[in-house]
């Protein structure tokens, strides 16, 4: 199929929101370095942070091939309103239960998204999706194990996990905020769309949540966390970007 101008715009919007999600969550996960509740989790979150930033770079490189700026420039020279990330990834790491459930909810969605994109009609994106599915598989395995272990823990552990799930779940629905070119993505066979992804995600997370002794909230159509895909963000994103880009902005032309 020959892509129209709208198809290219749709593709760029999809790539930006995926890459921005990965970059920002990668930075958030890196904040656990040296702070993990046990050494293994310190290492795990640091490793997953590296993976996500690598995935973001690969997506920014595709954007560059489509006429957007250099990956480093795109990643480090935009302000908050120019980012397409969802609200969930912007929130500070908080306590371990929050970061764990964010990791679980986000990476379960990413696993399905990348599985879908492995069949994309846009071959460069399909290749990237196939390349990174193995990494995301291990992220999901890590999250599943800890959600089940802490959900089945004592009353305090179980209670905290349920309370955090209740607060995280509405934010996670922002992952699936439809973009302005959903119809074009579906028409061109680039991506089946956010609604299809959300429905598969609910089917995938429900048995894990239930096996952990937890209850999945039922507000599946909550749109309170929408806005990130259109440049409307939480108060936390711009300070994070200021910190993340401080060195690069001193001398963007420097070679490392």
Protein described:
The protein is mainly α. It is 64% helix and 0% strand. α4 crosses α6 (155-172).
Query: Which stretches are low in confidence, meaning pLDDT under 50 for 5 or more residues running?
Result: none
Give the radius of gyration: 18 Å
Instruction: Determine the CATH superfamily.
Output: Ferritin, core subunit, four-helix bundle
User: Based on DSSP secondary structure assignment, what is the total number of beta strands?
Assistant: 0
Domains counted in the coordinates: how many? 1
Mean pLDDT across every amino acid position: 92
Task: Give the overall form.
Answer: globular
Alpha-beta content class = mainly alpha
Describe the sheet with the most strands.
none
| CATH class category | Mainly Alpha
Succession of helices and strands: HHHHHHHHHH
Helix count from the secondary structure assignment: 10
Termini separation comes to 41 Å
In short:
The protein has helices at residues 5-30, 39-65, 71-76, 96-117, 123-151, 155-172, 182-187, 194-211, 237-244, 246-250. With 256 residues, the protein is mainly alpha-helical.
Provide keyphrases for this structure.
256 residues; mainly alpha; Ferritin; 64% helix
